[in-house]
Amino acid sequence: MFTHSDFMKPGHDQYVYRHANGLCVIGLAKTHVALQAQGGVTSVDFNVGKSDRSELKVSGKRKKNAQHFQPNSILCNVHSGDVPYTVRCCVKGPLLEVNNKLIESPDLLNTSDCAYHSSLSLNLNFDFSNDAISHVPQAEREGYIAIVMPRPGDWLKIKETLVDFDEFKKLRNLS
């Protein structure tokens, strides 16, 4: 599934992939304006408002200490040079993890092709021993922003607001 824009801001495209276990992987689509800008993404800042998302420590079966997010909640800001771009959660649910590797290596977003490897994105942060993705470069496995765990009922509601990959390609005139 894809969301094709950040609340009517043209070009702020993000993807949401849902794994069979219900977890959602969120990231920037290849068509996001920050990735299209000269130099691409130069920094990622998870320090948003009163909390630093990068210091999130979730534990246990019930995901103790997880922050609960709404679809319009800000996950982070990505910067292309001096220009900040807001990245939103897109789904309602507890935030389980943010990709802290992006703080030190924001170029993982620039080199990531996650938006075009659905089998890869669905396996993010799970088992990389799978032969189907073992050939995929490290940057493509690690170019996501966050993992969220929506309730099944919440997922059904938000799913209606997303477009699938084929529709996304048509909207953006991609081949």
From TrEMBL:
Top-level lineage group: Eukaryota
Gene Ontology annotations for the cellular component aspect, listed alphabetically: nucleus
UniProt xrefs under InterPro entries: Abitram, Single_hybrid_motif
Full protein name: Protein Abitram
Organism encoding this protein: Chenopodium quinoa (Quinoa)
Lineage, top ranks: Eukaryota, Viridiplantae, Streptophyta, Embryophyta, Tracheophyta
